[in-house]
Design brief:
three-stranded antiparallel sheet, globular, alpha+beta, 2 helices, 8 strands
Amino acid sequence: MRGGDMIQSDTWHDPDLNMIRDVVAHTSDGCEGCLALGTRWAHLMLCLTCGYVGCSDSSPMRHARHHAQTSGHPIAQSLHPGDNWRWCFVHDVKICTPYPATGTRVVGPSVVPGLTKDVRQGLRIAKSQ
């Protein structure tokens, strides 16, 4: 990822957090861009504004970053098993989750979609009540 391992601090709050919405992943099969092109991905990210599933900067095509740049949707959630963070592509900063200012959390499995039938059920991001 570009920008190294910058992590959002307790004193600086990313102004793009207000772009996070309740979303449902567009697909559970993998990176939307790579699936369309027939290319491979290494790591998947979920856009927290619209639900687009794209490959991260560690993948050759970097569709999550391209989506952020072209759509204006700045923050994506890692879908890698065991990961609990988000990335702001505008500020190139890692945002650890759950992040108190947004109140959002992962509901359902937090794993890479498309690997098992269980993963295909209920992959969504929802605001905690």
